[in-house]
Write a structure and sequence with these properties.
heterodimer, A: 115 residues, mainly beta, four-stranded antiparallel β-sheet, 0% helix, B: mainly beta, 50% strand
Chain lengths: 115, 113
């Protein structure tokens, strides 16, 4: 149980285009989902927290107009990187937890390469 | 800032031996959770062990155990009988009332055969 999937696992896009990453909880309802960014050989940095049906809360320094997060249902959250640039190339990881539970379940991550 | 510090960027251990990874943290909360996550080359985050701050007893999961010193804000991970499959990045993390996880910078563990 407690499986989180991400799609796609790897995406290459051209500079200036937008790309959407999906995060799904497969066997539980995720009241809260988190989006992280991880650069090579670095730790995970929280980008934003999203709750179903409400606006995401972004961490300081994260551009909310560039990284659009939509938590449309209890099993799906999406991260859209708008007008991507090469410096947005990174590994993006989502996690989810169910209401009242402290444990976060992580997706397998999405590698984004912007050319 | 409430931080998590892992002072060992890299560690190595011989197969079947024991290794301890260090972690200290800073928090003003009295109720929180601490975690050790493993990230192998696949980059999938895997929960190794968790500790509730209100529990005095150190958590144990098979070959993995922690030494939780609440007053010192220390949370080290001991891996016994190290196996080749234990080689990975290990991240210490703290979670408070906001449910946000704050990660340390990680320790790369190498297991030598």
């Amino acid at each position: 149980g407690a499986v989180v999937s991400q799609h796609p696992s790897w995406v290459i896009c051209k500079s200036g285009t937008s790309v959407k990453i999906e995060c799904r909880s497969l066997d539980f309802q995720a009241t809260t989902m988190f989006w992280y960014r991880q650069f090579p050989k670095q730790s995970l940095m929280l980008m934003a927290t999203s709750n179903e049906g409400s606006k995401a809360t972004y961490e300081q320094g994260v551009e909310k107009d560039k990284f659009l997060i939509n938590h449309a249902s209890l099993t799906l959250s999406t991260l859209t990187v708008t007008s991507a640039h090469p410096e947005d190339s990174s590994f993006y990881i989502c996690s989810a937890n169910s209401g009242g539970a402290y444990e976060q379940y992580f997706g397998p991550g999405t590698r984004l390469t912007v050319t | 800032a409430q931080t998590v510090t892992q002072s060992q960027p890299e560690m190595s251990v011989q197969e079947a031996e024991t290794v301890t990874l260090s972690c200290t943290y800073d928090t003003s909360e009295s109720d929180y959770y601490l975690f050790w996550y493993k990230q192998p080359p696949s980059r999938q985050m895997i929960l190794v062990i968790r500790q509730e701050a209100y529990k005095q007893q150190n958590a144990t999961e098979n070959r993995f155990s922690v030494n939780f010193q609440k007053a010192a804000k220390s949370f080290s991970l001991k891996i016994s009988d190290s196996q080749l499959g234990d080689a990975a990045m290990y991240f210490c993390a703290r979670q408070g009332g906001s449910e946000k996880l704050v990660f340390g910078k990680g320790t790369k563990l190498t297991v030598n055969p």
